[in-house]
Design a protein that fits this description.
By secondary structure, this protein is an alpha+beta fold. Helices cover about 70% and strands about 10% of the residues. Strands 1, 2, 3, 4 and 5 form a five-stranded antiparallel β-sheet that branches.
Length: about 375
């Protein structure tokens, strides 16, 4: 007697669909993991084969790099001796970006061979522009200079600055964070390097770089305004010192007139001196303070006469670069890659020959009469 199966309910169909979905999902994940494993395995085998190929042909590769280095040295010898000279300058009024843009512009002119523009900029003959190699710059990263920048920014007080606010900023931005946040354009002092085959051009190169930067209209406006401000401040400080000196002479005259033998107020003066300030001493301290400000102002005025102030100019004769200091790595790399390409082509050719032989053998096995 046949037993009738009860019909499946909707809940049973949902369980079956869920089980099927879980099974397919698990299978897909498993296949994906197996594919990832096979991929890593293939990459590992390819890496090992590449390393074995390099090890077997290391002598040829070394020979190619040596030949490339020799060719690069020959080209350097044919190009003539390179001379290098450095200049240290201070970038005023945030002109460091203009300095780096100028050097990048000059390198572009050299690369494009624009002799006319270079000759006009440096006031040299067009033939001499072909002797220019490159320009570069880097900031002078000294701990002392960075500390001076931090002190001027946060810790140096003055009549127009409040030490309480600066102290808050100092706690907000520590010296370590301040130093790490500095960019190339934030540093005050920079070293500019020029490389040429004619050592007699360094004076003209320095004048040309400074001349091109001085053409910046914004920097020129800021420079002229700062010069007027420094002059006005110096006149104001000098006038204040003179007025205080006149007042000091008046105090001295009053003291001289007040010191008579019949007066007996010396004890009262001594008793009150500990409580009340002595105006003569305060006046003397104020004169010294203004003289310090005058000294700082004049020093700043001398430095801020130009957008770029040169502290150490180019050496007029420069310094000859040795072969080790000149870039021959490109030629060595070119020789290495050339030999590597030849070896790979030989390997591919051998692989094709083996494939052709294997195909002929299979064909003979299938059709011996062929």
């Amino acid at each position: 007697m046949d037993v009738k199966q009860p019909p499946l309910s909707g809940h049973d169909y949902q369980d079956a669909d869920a089980n099927l979905l879980l099974y397919k999902t698990g299978k897909s994940v498993k296949d994906f993991l197996l594919w990832i494993g096979s991929l890593f395995k293939s990459l590992g085998n390819a890496l090992m084969r590449s390393l074995l190929f390099l090890m077997r042909n290391i002598l040829w590769l070394f020979l190619g790099a040596a030949l490339g280095t020799g060719y690069g040295a020959y080209k350097i010898e044919q190009a003539g001796a390179h001379c290098e000279s450095t200049m240290t300058a201070k970038a005023n009024f945030n002109s460091a970006r203009a300095l780096y843009n100028t050097l990048e512009y000059l390198n572009s002119l050299i690369s494009s061979g624009d002799s006319k523009t270079l000759a006009e900029l440096f006031a040299i003959a067009p033939e001499q522009t072909k002797q220019l190699i490159s320009f570069s710059a880097e900031p002078v990263k000294s701990e002392m200079l960075v500390a001076e920048m931090y002190r001027e920014q946060f810790l140096q007080g003055g009549r127009n600055r409040f030490m309480q606010q600066d102290t808050v900023w100092a706690h907000t931005l520590s010296f370590k964070n301040f130093k790490e946040s500095l960019t190339v354009y934030d540093y005050y002092y920079h070293t500019i390097t020029a490389v040429t085959t004619n050592a007699l051009l360094f004076n003209d190169l320095q004048k040309g770089i400074l001349k091109h930067i001085s053409r910046n209209e914004v920097l020129t406006t800021i420079l002229n305004s700062q010069i007027r401000t420094n002059n006005d401040e110096e006149k104001l400080i000098v006038a204040a010192i003179r007025n205080l000196d006149t007042l000091r002479q008046a105090y001295n005259l009053r003291l001289i007139k007040g010191q008579t033998p019949g007066e007996s107020n010396q004890l009262v003066f001594m008793e009150k001196s500990s409580e009340n300030p002595v105006p003569e001493l305060e006046l003397y301290d104020k004169v010294l303070e203004l003289q310090d400000e005058l000294k700082t102002n004049r020093k700043r005025s001398v430095i801020e006469q130009y957008a770029i102030t040169v502290f150490s100019p180019f050496n007029p004769l420069g310094r000859k670069l040795s072969y080790l200091q000149r870039n021959v790595s490109y030629s060595a790399l070119a020789g290495f890659l050339l030999v590597l390409t030849v070896l790979l082509l030989i390997l591919i050719y051998k692989s094709l020959l083996l494939y052709e032989k294997a195909a002929i053998i299979r064909k003979r096995k299938i059709n011996p009469e062929a």
